[in-house]
Amino acid sequence: MKKLNKYLTVALLAIINTGCVVFLSAVAAATIYYFSGDDAITIEAVLDKPAETVFAALIEEVNKVEGGEIKDKDDENLSFIATRGDRKAECVITKLDDKKCQLKVVADAGLDDKEKDMHLAMKIVTRVCNNLKIDYKIVEKDKSED
């Protein structure tokens, strides 16, 4: 009987461990796409989180940016304009279903500061993902893919 209990315990542990591995591999992941046009930088991602949750996290991250301000906030349409000095970015969240949304940030691309604008917008989006514990990868999108 002791041997049978030992084998059952080992089998049960194997099942539990296998279940954990499967569960861990199902962690939410997102691809953050970006492309830089002549007059704007666009960053977008589909996130496996409710739109309202992402909206709140996005506002929180913009408020953490030194000198960052939120203007024209529209809670109903989950959008606002984020500004920092003379730079601005339109932030819009589109609800896809109860557990999924699209986050889109379109930042002005000043000719001299395009890299800084990209860095700031991307930093906010990646911080939202980190805050919500969403794994992500960043992929440059070719403008011709639109």
Notes on the structure:
This protein has helices at residues 2-25, 51-64, 114-131; strands at 29-36, 40-47, 68-74, 79-84, 87-97, 100-108, 135-140. It is α+β, with helices and mostly antiparallel strands. It has a single domain, classed as START domain (Alpha-D-Glucose-1,6-Bisphosphate, Chain A, domain 4). A seven-stranded mixed sheet has the order 3-4-5-6-2-1-7, covered by helices on one side. A hairpin with a 2-residue loop joins strand 5 and strand 6. Helix 2 packs across helix 3 (114-131). The radius of gyration is 21 Å and the shape is globular.
Concise summary:
The chain has 146 residues and is α+β, with helices and mostly antiparallel strands. The chain is built from 3 helices and 7 strands, in the order H-E-E-H-E-E-E-E-H-E.
Order of helices and strands: HEEHEEEEHE
Could you tell me the strand content as a percent range? 35-45%
The CATH class is identified as Alpha Beta
Largest beta sheet: what is the strand line-up? 3-4-5-6-2-1-7
Keywords:
146 residues, disordered N terminus, alpha+beta, 7 strands, 3 helices, seven-stranded mixed beta sheet, Alpha-D-Glucose-1,6-Bisphosphate, Chain A, domain 4, 38% strand
Secondary structure layout plus pairing:
Layout: H1 2-25, E1 29-36, E2 40-47, H2 51-64, E3 68-74, E4 79-84, E5 87-97, E6 100-108, H3 114-131, E7 135-140
Parallel strand pairs: 1-7
Antiparallel strand pairs: 1-2, 2-6, 3-4, 4-5, 5-6
Helix pairs in contact: 2-3
